[in-house]
Write a structure and sequence with these properties.
Layout lengths: L35 H12 L6 H22 L8 H14 L3 E2 L12 E4 L2 E3 L13 E10 L2 E10 L5 H18 L8 H14 L3 E2 L5 E3 L6 E5 L16 E4 L2 E3 L5 E3 L6 E3 L5 E3 L2 E5 L4 E3 L6
Antiparallel strand pairs: 1-4, 2-4, 3-12, 4-5, 6-10, 7-8, 9-14, 10-13, 11-12, 14-15
Helix pairs in contact: 2-3, 4-5
C-alpha cells in the first residue's frame, strides 16, 4: 500500500531540527547528523518521525525475515497457469501459521492479504480469478505484522518467457531501487533518493509514478516520512540514524500518468504500458543503510 506524496524542506533560515533554537545555517547545516541527545525528540516534533531503537529494529528485522520467507513460498509455485487468488492463499496461510498478520487484509477496506499487480497494473492489484500467462510480469507486494511490528517488500517476476519490453522495464525498475538505495545515508536528504531514481529511469526513456510514494514503516503500516521516487537533490527531510522507511519505485515503460479502476484500488498505466516495481524496508545507520528485507538486486 502506497501513500500520497508530500514533501518537507529545511531552509537555511529555518529553525534547526536538532532543537537548539538556532537557524539551520548557523547550527547543523553541513553536519551528518544533529546532536544525538536531541535527535529523537526533534524529529518527532518537527516531522512526526519516530526514530527506531535497537530493540525496535530487531523486531522489524524479524518481520522482514518472515516477509522474505513468504516470498520463498510464493516463488515455488509462480508460473503460467497459476491463479492469482492462489498467491493470496499462500501468503495468508503462511503468515498466519507463523504467528503474524497480513497487513493488507481489511486495510482501509482492501479485501485480500497481498497485492498482485500484472503487466500494466502499477500497484494494489487485487488477487482473484486471473490466471498468469506466459510472458506476463507480476509484482507481489507482501507486508507482515509480527509481534506488533511491520515490514514491507515487493518484487516483480517474469512468468514464462518475457518479451524485450518486459525485460527492459523489470531491469530498469530493479536498477532504480539500487540507485535509490545508494543515496540512503546520513547527510543526504529524502529528495536525493527520488532524484537518483528519476535520473536513471528517465535516462532509459521510462517514467516514474508520482501519485504513490514510499513511506515510513515499523510501528504502523504507513508512517512519516513519505519518500517520493522523483525530486531534487538536497531537499526534504535530512536522513539520520534510526529512520526506517521503504523505497519502492514504480516505473512505467510509457508515460507516468495512471488511472484507478472501478474497484477503487487497482492503479493502471493510463497508456496501457508495462509497469514494474521493487521495494525494500530500510534502516538508516550511522554510515549508510541496512535493508531489513534484503534480497538480491
Amino acid at each position: 500500500m502506497k501513500q500520497k506524496k508530500k514533501s518537507t524542506k529545511i531552509g537555511r533560515n529555518d529553525a534547526c531540527p536538532c532543537g537548539s533554537g538556532k537557524k539551520y545555517k548557523n547550527c547543523c547545516m553541513g553536519r551528518s547528523t544533529p546532536p544525538p541527545e536531541s535527535l529523537q525528540k526533534s524529529y518527532q516534533k518537527r516531522y512526526n518521525i519516530r526514530l527506531k531503537s535497537a530493540t525496535d529494529v530487531e523486531k522489524i528485522r524479524a518481520a522482514g525475515e518472515l516477509v522474505l520467507a513468504t516470498f520463498a513460498e510464493v516463488e515455488k509455485v509462480l508460473g503460467p497457469g497459476l491463479v492469482t487468488d492462489e498467491i493470496n492463499t499462500i501468503v495468508h496461510d503462511f503468515t498466519i501459521r507463523h504467528g503474524a498478520t497480513p497487513a493488507p487484509l481489511n486495510y482501509r477496506g482492501f479485501p485480500k492479504s497481498v497485492c498482485v499487480s500484472i503487466n500494466d497494473v502499477i500497484c494494489h492489484g487485487i488477487p482473484g480469478p486471473r490466471v498468469l500467462q506466459d510472458g506476463d510480469i507480476v509484482n507481489v507486494d507482501i507486508t507482515s505484522i509480527l509481534d506488533g511490528y511491520y515490514a514491507d517488500a515487493n518484487k516483480t517476476f517474469f512468468i514464462g518467457t518475457p518479451s524485450d519490453d518486459a525485460r527492459k522495464i523489470v531491469n530498469v525498475a530493479r536498477t532504480c531501487l539500487k540507485e535509490g538505495l545508494a543515496m540512503v545515508r546520513p547527510g543526504n536528504c529524502i529528495g536525493d533518493i527520488g532524484w537518483a531514481i528519476q535520473q536513471y529511469a528517465e535516462s532509459q526513456n521510462c517514467s516514474v509514478v508520482r501519485e504513490f510514494v514510499g513511506h515510513g514503516v515499523g510501528f504502523q503500516f504507513h508512517e512519516a516520512p513519505q519518500v517520493p521516487h522523483f525530486g531534487r537533490r538536497n531537499t526534504g527531510v535530512p536522513l539520520v540514524p534510526g529512520m526506517v522507511f521503504t523505497v519502492e519505485p514504480m516505473i512505467n515503460l510509457g508515460r507516468h500518468q495512471l488511472r484507478i479502476l472501478e474497484d477503487k484500488w487497482t492503479a493502471v498505466t493510463a497508456d496501457g504500458s508495462l509497469s514494474a516495481q521493487f521495494e525494500q524496508t530500510l534502516l538508516v545507520t550511522e554510515d549508510g543503510y541496512e535493508s531489513l528485507t534484503p534480497f538480491a538486486l
